[in-house]
């Protein structure tokens, strides 16, 4: 999966016509028909990103599918307990494929004795039996290492086989900068990832298993006599935050992936769906503050623009030999982009068939529409007839056809 760097946002008011040519060309070449401004707001200098105390970080806008800002997003870093997101993803796949059930009882293996006193755990003992769902909740909410070990044994029979599946899954998801050597996030020289790869994993959850957020937005985990607060401090400080995960080791520092839904940002009060990832912050407090800075920056420095709107009339075009005379042109799919605050895009409409002859079906492709900023194409879509043009009575069709041939001959 390739990530686009930040772009886009456009206005929602009526299009303003900058220039137009409504004549018919005798050549079958492209015709630059119109150049429309999506809004009249003046451009201003883009706000610089905040000073985030992290070795690597990024902030991503789901609606536009773009990384808005980043620093060293491809740098290898130890994920610490962010590893457990891949552990959970493999478990979700096992349930989806029918190999396990959420209420199926799992048995803690002898290997849980390896979990040290300074590691986060559920205090499982070998032979303890508990539902798969409780293990995943303990894994993601309080980051229990003994839950990770138990899940690995339950899914693949051994940690070694489970880690092999983790790495195969990472490769399938396009996480080329990632390698795991355990299911819990214990430090090691061959245990690493990148912020970009963790974004790929987060988006895979969005696409395949969005139910993970019902787990990661829980403020605490309780199972029988065990109870502990969630490791994500923003869950109680920001109502828009619905997960995902924190991580920490001495080598990795303090890591976090934050998902924020319908977060109201910017002067226009737009609701935004964002992901912030920070690796290698120096403390819990800096980790939380850095995540908040990135989420706030996404709203103050950028806005979402609907640059192409499905079914909206962009131009009217003469259809020779038709009863209607002309049809509306537009696009069939809405597209949104992210733009720096105060910056708007232009819309360029190009015809490759400037003189169609009836009949013309609805949806017929007649050219393309492009949203442009500083000469860069932000979004493009086929320009289609939004209406059908039916044949006129034969005398009018004949006259139109003769007139069109004369124009083409003269040209």
UniProtKB/TrEMBL annotation:
UniProt function note: Removes C-terminal D-alanyl residues from sugar-peptide cell wall precursors.
UniProt protein name: serine-type D-Ala-D-Ala carboxypeptidase
UniProt xrefs under InterPro entries: Beta-lactam/transpept-like, Peniciliin-bd_prot_C_sf, Peptidase_S11, Peptidase_S11_C, Peptidase_S11_C_sf, Peptidase_S11_N
GO molecular-function terms, A-Z: carboxypeptidase activity
Pathway recorded for this protein: Cell wall biogenesis; peptidoglycan biosynthesis
Domain of life: Bacteria
SMART domains documented for this protein: PBP5_C
Leader sequence segment: 1-45
Catalytic activity entry: Preferential cleavage: (Ac)2-L-Lys-D-Ala-|-D-Ala. Also transpeptidation of peptidyl-alanyl moieties that are N-acyl substituents of D-alanine
Organism: Pseudoroseomonas ludipueritiae
EC number: 3.4.16.4
Entry keywords, A to Z: Carboxypeptidase, Cell shape, Cell wall biogenesis/degradation, Hydrolase, Peptidoglycan synthesis, Protease, Signal
Annotated family: Belongs to the peptidase S11 family.
Alphabetical list of PANTHER family matching this protein: D-ALANYL-D-ALANINE CARBOXYPEPTIDASE, TRAFFICKING PROTEIN PARTICLE COMPLEX SUBUNIT 12
Peptidase S11 D-Ala-D-Ala carboxypeptidase A C-terminal domain segment(s): 302-391
